Amino acid sequence: QVQLVQSGGGLVQAGGSLRLSCAASERIFSINTMAWYRLAPGKQLERVLVAAISSGERTYYADSAKGRFTISRNNANNTLYLQMNTLKPEDTSVYYCNAGGIWDSRRISAGGSWGQGTQVTVSS
Fold this sequence. Notes:
- The protein is mainly beta and 124 residues long.
- It has strands at residues 4-8, 10-13, 18-24, 33-39, 47-54, 59-61, 69-74, 79-84, 93-103, 108-109, 113-114, 118-123.
- Helix content is 0%, strand content 54%.
- Strands 2, 4, 5, 6, 9, 10, 11 and 12 form an eight-stranded mixed sheet that branches.
């Protein structure tokens, strides 16, 4: 499985921006679905989908991320990104990148490769 190493995140005031990066150990052009998840509020073991992107650049955003977050992938440097703007306190969570999921007509499921997690804290 591809190994994923995350960077970015940190502490920001409400309304601010952060960019998360996720560097893959191998070429990602053939990986169909890459995504960002975050821990559900109050649930340390449940990860909820934030955004996903296919190899064909099709994107999906959770309602909470629409209009504020942008997912992108750079196949040249094998990196997945999540640009987060207009951050809110409720965006505070641990964010995880994921690779190798399945995206069909009904749902997007996570793949077996996960990044190590990055804390994002938004102060009010």
